[in-house]
Specification:
Helices cover 38% and strands 40% of the residues. It has 159 residues and is α+β, with helices and mostly antiparallel strands. Strands 1, 2, 3, 4, 5, 6 and 7 form a seven-stranded antiparallel sheet that branches. α1 (2-30) crosses α3. The relative contact order is 0.27.
Length: 159
């Protein structure tokens, strides 16, 4: 049990780095400071209604990040970015920025780590289920005046 607690504690320090990067980059994009919340998320399927951008984390530590929001928040997010039409590519680009900045900060903080990203994939719809099998996962919620933008961050067990 000690090992799992230590792993979870270490992974939480990784997640906190992503919280800071997510906050900074989101505030720059929408010109509004988000209220941030970090929660441990049980290793159960993630249920999403709206848009989900999945980005694989390779290297050390490995895992995945899922940036997601409701369709209504996506519309308002696009308006904040001064886009006239809702464009899933814009959400994908923003998610890539959030996760890339988190990975860069993690690599700077932990010199022995070499976290890299896979290209993002986008899923739109209702009742989306994304598995979290064998991942220590965290939910990062950014609350803005127009809705919530969330990131579910999962790291593989072990190093």
């Amino acid at each position: 049990m000690e090992k799992i607690s230590r792993e979870t504690e270490l992974r939480e320090s990784y997640a906190e780095i992503f919280v800071d990067a997510f906050r900074e980059e989101l505030a720059k994009l929408v010109d509004e400071p988000p209220e941030m919340k970090l929660d441990f998320y049980e290793s159960k399927p993630l249920n999403i209604n709206g848009i989900a951008i999945v980005i694989g984390l390779t290297g050390s530590p490995s895992g995945r990040a899922v940036v997601y929001m409701s369709n209504e928040t996506l519309k308002l997010f696009a308006q904040k970015l001064q886009m006239h039409e809702v464009d899933e590519d814009a959400a994908e680009d923003a998610a890539n920025i959030f996760v890339k900045c988190g990975a860069e900060k993690l690599n700077e903080t932990f010199a022995e780590k070499n976290l890299t990203l896979t290209p993002p994939g986008t899923i739109c719809g209702n009742g989306i289920k994304i598995a979290s099998h064998k991942l220590i996962t965290f939910k990062i919620t950014a609350t803005l005046t127009f809705g919530e933008v969330c990131m579910n961050l999962g790291f593989a067990e072990g190093d």
